[in-house]
Design goal:
about 70 residues; mainly alpha; about 90% helix
Length: about 70
């Protein structure tokens, strides 16, 4: 349970940092770089979520293929 909460805090932290970087770059007039930073943040979060989904499917597979 605690591990699940840390994943949520990691994703929220990445979102906050990316939003701050995006705002700063947009105010500096570098909107293209701001969009790239947002895209990089999205890809990082996507990899985190995909890894968690892969773990979930592995656990589901081990439950249904239990030969006990």
């Amino acid at each position: 349970m605690l591990h699940d909460a840390t994943i949520l805090f990691q994703i929220a932290g990445i979102g906050i940092i990316v939003a701050m970087i995006h705002s700063i770059l947009k105010q500096m007039g570098k909107e293209e770089i701001a969009h790239v930073a947002t895209l990089v943040g999205f890809i990082i979060v996507l990899f985190i979520v995909l890894n968690r989904l892969a773990d979930l499917f592995q656990q589901i597979k081990s439950v249904f293929l239990y030969q006990g």
